[in-house]
């Protein structure tokens, strides 16, 4: 399983765009990149997933360069409720393959 | 939106006691998982379960742990003789292994069961 590296924490203000970058130098050809969000005392929640280029949904965008050795989660116009820990995970992610969580990035959004 | 339901939300037990944590996965899901998170630490994989047997387990999942799908809806984690270090939040998750928008499996997690061992 590819190891991921993320910043431990980030601070932002309401209304700003937040970009969280994850490094995964050893990503394999079949690996997908998935981001989860976790609020205190809650289970992780799926945000977005991608393989290459750019993916956008109603919550976030995911940018993946051509070499796929990193990815950037972009949260447009964050609010206080976006304060959470964000995890980047890499893997084929079949039902048989376990998800391995790293330490994640703790995002604090202030007024 | 379908959700994974876990009970109890919080359980306090004495060291050495048996504990059973219960989960109701999403109804059409086929893969089931248990993870745990010790306070302030990262989410750790315990076990995955498919077709009524364990698919993979971590080194944490020793002989004190067992999982079972006793009927068509519940998925349980049993800790036979709890230790102080078993105190953690335990998360159940499930997936249907259908590919997500980008082609890979997505897990849905429950809200967790907090276990406190005294």
How would you describe this protein?
- The complex is a heterodimer of chains A (111) and B (118).
- Chain A is an all-beta fold and 111 residues long.
- Helix content of chain A is 0%, strand content 47%.
- Chain A has a 5-stranded mixed β-sheet with strand order 1-9-8-3-4, with no helix packed on it. Chain A has a 4-stranded antiparallel β-sheet with strand order 2-7-6-5, with no helix packed on it.
- Chain A is globular and about 40 Å long.
- In chain B, strands 2, 4, 5, 6, 9, 10 and 11 form a 7-stranded mixed β-sheet that branches. In chain B, strands 1-3-8-7 form a 4-stranded antiparallel β-sheet, with no helix packed on it.
- In chain B, a hairpin with a 2-residue loop joins strand 5 and strand 6 (53-57).
- Chain B has no helices and 11 strands.
- Chain B is mainly β.
- Chain B starts with a strand and ends with a strand.
- The A-B interface holds A 32, 34, 38, 41-46, 49-51, 55, 57, 87, 91-104 and B 4, 30-31, 33, 35, 42-45, 48, 50, 55-56, 58, 89, 91, 93, 95, 97, 100-112, 114.
List the helices and strands and how they pair.
The complex is a heterodimer of chains A (111) and B (118).
Chain A: E1 9-13, E2 18-23, E3 32-38, E4 45-50, E5 53-56, E6 61-64, E7 70-75, E8 84-91, E9 105-110
Chain B: E1 5-7, E2 10-13, E3 19-24, E4 31-37, E5 43-50, E6 53-57, E7 65-68, E8 75-79, E9 88-95, E10 108-109, E11 113-117
Parallel strand pairs in B: 2-11
Antiparallel strand pairs in B: 1-3, 3-8, 4-5, 4-9, 5-6, 7-8, 9-10, 9-11
